[in-house]
Backbone:
């Protein structure tokens, strides 16, 4: 099957959404925990989290256009902090439910059965059931003119991870904590490690 610019533009909206969202392959499934200045909490699943640098430790993510209320982005801008909580096989169904359109004062924590957890004095909630989670301080937020999505860049200020997931060299063994992957908008996958390869040299 071949699609070109013209045929892509003529696809039914839902079909095109699934097609294009699936092209980038497996993505990380993360729950972004935030709260506003009044303590109202929000939790949203995001599949666009990516590594940006280790020195300093930076992480980026893309948030959809702000044409409709984006409580996660609003809370991040308001407080300057958020948490990133990886999804595992025990909570992927609850994690997916956070994508429903809850009102600002309806906490996804309360509606999905996931548990708020405050660690390290960070002014943002973690997901207790997540086995790898980290606190992030907002560094930069940019609106991308190409499609009005928001690029959010943060500094990792604390990390909480199960001991069994950390190898001697600092590598995080995601399989050991049953981290799941996401493809498209709604397909969740378990993972199996093939191998760690040595540093490539000529």
Residues:
């Amino acid at each position: 099957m071949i699609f070109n610019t013209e045929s892509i533009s003529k696809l039914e909206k839902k079909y095109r959404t699934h097609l294009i969202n699936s092209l980038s392959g497996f993505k990380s499934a993360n729950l972004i925990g935030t709260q506003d200045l009044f303590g109202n909490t929000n939790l949203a699943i995001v599949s666009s989290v990516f590594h940006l640098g280790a020195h300093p430790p930076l992480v980026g993510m893309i948030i959809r256009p702000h044409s409709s209320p984006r409580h996660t982005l609003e809370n991040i801008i308001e407080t300057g902090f958020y948490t990133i909580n990886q999804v595992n096989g025990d909570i992927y169904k609850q994690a997916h439910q956070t994508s429903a359109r809850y009102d600002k004062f309806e906490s996804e924590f309360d509606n999905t059965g996931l548990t708020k957890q405050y660690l390290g004095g960070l002014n943002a909630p973690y997901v207790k059931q997540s086995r790898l989670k980290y606190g992030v301080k907002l560094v930069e937020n940019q609106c991308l003119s190409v499609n009005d999505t928001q690029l959010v860049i943060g500094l990792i200020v604390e990390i909480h991870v199960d001991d069994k997931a950390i190898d001697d060299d600092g590598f995080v063994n995601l399989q050991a904590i049953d981290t799941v992957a996401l493809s498209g908008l709604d397909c969740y996958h378990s993972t199996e490690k093939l191998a760690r390869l040595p540093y490539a040299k000529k």
